[in-house]
Amino acid sequence: MNTVIPISIWPKGLINCFLIKGDHKHILVDTGLPGSEHKIFKQLEEHKIDKADIGLIIITHGHIDHYGSAARLKKLLNVPILAHQSDLEAYTSGKADITTLKPNKPQWRLFKAMIKDQKVRAFQPDILMEDDTEFSLNNWGIRGKVIHTPGHTPGSISIILDNGKAIIMDMLASGILLGGVMFNSRIKHPPFHDDLKQLKSSFEKVISENGSLYYLGHGGPVNRELVIKYYDKYFKEKNLI
Ligand SMILES: [Zn+2]
Ligand SMILES: [Zn+2]
Q1: What is the pLDDT of residues 183-235, one digit of tens each?
Q2: CB–CB of 128/177 below 8 Å?
Q3: Among candidates 130, 25, 19, 35, which has minimal Cα distance to 82?
Q4: For residues 103 and 122, what is the distance between their CA atoms, to the nearest angstrom?
Q5: R_g of the chain, CA atoms, integer Å
Q6: Which one of 64, 141, 219, 233 is least enclosed by Cβ atoms within 10 Å?
Q7: How far is the CA of 192 from the centre of ligand 2 (A)?
Q8: Which residues are close to ligand 2, an ion, with C-beta < 5 A?
C-alpha cells in the first residue's frame, strides 16, 4: 500500500508537502519554504520514516512555498530531483516567475507581494519531464505515475497512484485563508492560476484517472466529488464550459 503522509510546513494544512511510502524507497513531494528541512525531518521521524529510505524528491511546480528547500534537501538526502521542464527557469534562478501570477482573489495580492522579492537557493533538477510525457514511479516500489498538469504554472505536475490517491497540489485549495484551519471541505481557488484553459484540460486529465482522494498544497485532502464540483463551478463561472 503506497500511503501518502502529509507533512506540514505551516500548521493546520496552510502549506503542505507529502511523503509517499514505497516498497523499495519513499518519495518526498515538495519541500516547503526555504529553511523547512528540519521541520520535514522531525515529522518524518514522528512517522518512523528513516530519511535514508527516501529515494527521490518530486517538485510539483515553481513556487517557492513548494521548492524553497529543494536545494538543501537534495544535498542532505543525496537523492535526485524530478521536475518539469516548463518551470525550469524558476528552479535554476531560485525565483518564482511572478509575472504570470494572476491573483484569483484580492487577498492573494498580499501573498504575491510576500513572494515577489524572495530568492531561494537554486537547483538543477536531475530528471526533467518534458511536454506531456508521463513518468512511472515503479522503480521506487510505488504503483503510480507523474503526469503533466499545467495551468497553475506551465510546469505543474501531479501524482496519480493506482490506489486512488492523488497529489494535485495547487490545482485547487480548500479551507479558509490559504487552505486549512477550518472548513477543509470548502473548496476555493488557490491564490493564482497562470493559464485557465490549460488548467481546465489538466482537470479533465486528472478526473479521467480513477482518483478518490486528492491531496493539496494548501488545505485538503478533498474527495472526487469536490474536485468535480470545483471543475464545474469554476470553469462555468469563467465561461469555459
Ligand atoms: Zn503554487
Ligand atoms: Zn502553493
Answers
A1: 555 666 666 778 999 999 999 999 999 899 999 998 889 999 999 999 998 89
A2: no
A3: 130
A4: 25
A5: 16
A6: 233
A7: 9
A8: 65, 170, 217
Distance 28 CA to ligand 1 centre (A): 17
Ligand with an atom nearest the CA of residue 90 = 1
Ligand nearest to the CA of 15: 2
* 117-156 pLDDT per residue, tens: 678 899 999 999 999 999 999 999 999 999 999 999 999 9
Contact assessment for residue 163 and residue 210, using Cβ atoms and an 8 Å cutoff? no
Domains in the chain: boundaries: 4-237
Compute the half-sphere exposure of residue 127: CA atoms within 13 Å on the CB side of its CA: 17
Query: Which numbered ligand comes closest to the C-alpha of 16?
Result: 2
CATH topology of domain 4-237: Metallo-beta-lactamase; Chain A (3.60.15)
Helices 37-46 and 70-77, packing angle to 10 deg? 50
Report residue 12's pLDDT band, with 50, 70 and 90 as the boundaries.
confident
Q: How far is the CA of 177 from the centre of ligand 1 (A)?
A: 14
pTM: 0.91
